Amino acid sequence: MADSIFKKIYNKEIPSEIIYEDNFVFAINDINPIAPVHILVIPKEQIPTINDINADNEAIIGKIVLAAKHIAKQQGVAENGYRLVFNCNADGGQTVFHIHCHLLAGKKLIWNA
Ligand code: 5GP
Q1: Which of 22, 32, 33, 86 registers the highest number of CB atoms within 10 A of its CB?
Q2: Ligand 1, pocket-test mutation among 28, 46, 96, most atoms within 8 A of CB
Q3: pLDDT for residue 112 is more than 90
């Protein structure tokens, strides 16, 4: 599998500030934010889509959510609230095939899928 754009960012082949990192995941600000806070929480392991989550790698989803919770607190948005989104494939609007969780916050978010 070719390296994803996120893998290249993590490997510093493409510049982007890493705003959070632990043993399993890292996070960056989205280059095209749709909310005042729009952060991508990304596993270090390159898994293409949520369809590829299975019993062998399911734990990474918990790691992502825990990191997102931590980042939301760090960003000062935990109390007001936030949204976590995984897009999957074409109808889900996925454009980067390395799973990632969008952390959206900083305004009252509209729900109109
Ligand atoms: P998806 O559409 O796959 O759910 O989300 C991919 C996200 O990655 C998009 O919101 C897009 O703006 C963001 N993105 C794509 N390329 C880059 C990049 O080079 N740097 C950063 N920081 N974000 C990117």
Answers
A1: 86
A2: 96
A3: no
